[in-house]
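User: Sequence in, structure out. Go.
Assistant: Echoing your sequence, followed by the structure tokens.
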Amino acid sequence: MIDVVIAGAGPNGLMLACELALAGVRPLVLERLPEPTTEQRANGLVGQVIRMLDRRGLYERLAGGPGPPRPAAGFTFGAFPLDLHDLPDHPLYTMLVPQRRIEQMLTERAAELGVEIRRGHEVLGLTRHAGSVTVEVAGAAPVEASYLVGADGGHSVVRKLAGIDFPGVTTDDTVSRTAHVSVPATMVDAQGALHVPGFGVVPPFRHTRTERGMFTWAPMPGRDPLISVGERDRPGGGEPTLAELRAAAARVLGADVPLAAPTGPGPHLLRRTEGGNTRLAATYRAGRVLLLGDAAHVHSALGGSGLNLGLQDAINLGWKLAAEVRGQAPDGLLDTYESERRPVGERVNMHTRAQSLLVGPGGEVTALRELFGELLASADTRRHLAELIAGADIRYEMPGATGPRVGRWAPDVPGLTALTRTGRPLLLDPTGGLDVGRWAARVDVAAAPGLDTALLLRPDCYVAWEGTTGDGLEQALAAWFGKP
């Protein structure tokens, strides 16, 4: 019997497979598509997950060079520039990398860890038993597993088969047109900004909002640039065209942008998307069936929070599910996946809906933006938004634990990235006088001279205990990592 079947070989499913394999559990990934998709999807990573990838030794593989990630100098929120230059040690990190490269890297890592991925295997049904799940697969024999995880996207078959509701809000009054294009080289300056006669300068990788809609210019390194135009009440018909995109850009900017077909190597994107969804699964778990990533939550792409949210889901779930499979999980551990991550999904839905309102057309929105722009003059406001976008404002409830850092993500200390690559629990002990006793086979111990107190870290790098003596340490070890 397989330990865990994961439906979906996107970034979230692959990340979960890697986390499970690190923890000594045997996952099997079933993917409907026979080959990795070449479709243009996400263009990068935003938020705390970048630092987490670094702590798993995966950041440099994506970056293509040595060195740790650095905080971004700026970002965007609701089509406002979010200047972060004056905020020391802010938590917002960004990384420009196409989703297919992320999937390629995680596929390579999964192979190193011995994970089996079966492509062209579509999940058709499931049968739940007292101690397992039987997964029916198109054109193949059924697979029996201890658990099934649906990482199969917003239209998740697993979610539907498990009977989990997906309540939320659907909008049908918006249309977005996006394509790879070419523009005259004279329109692009050395900083990558687009100069549009009759309108002005459009900064790169920022949402430019007017009272008629939103325009985005993204000069992708080594590729044709992407242009995206969002409007209200402008439905399309038939196959999308570059002429349609050019007309939409002219309406939004009030000036013509001479777009032409892309000239570089493909694949090239030409897409029209009408309407949108903000939805959150009623539960992340139905017995031995769990949901992950877009199968559990969908929302606007504004702010780039999708992969940050889904990959962090996978890292939270991986060690807990592995402990359950190994028979070492304390009572209720697996339920904390939902109690910890579903509120984060609610928060992302909240701020993406707020951003959708801020980028909308109309004079009333312009007035709201004038007020919001005044608020952004405050460094406290900008730090708050940086933490919100990064997912760094999360503090999990740790019953019975005290200390200013308990429930928060572990601070950076020298050498921590090397210590967290194994995905094991870790006691950072600057005192040199603590040990984990009967948990020594499950929990690593390391010196941490840069800390003023000892910290017990969960495999997802959240602090489970803090102290200078051993008071409460055994209770925390038992609460999170089971009986010794």
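User: And one key feature?
Assistant: The radius of gyration is 23 Å.
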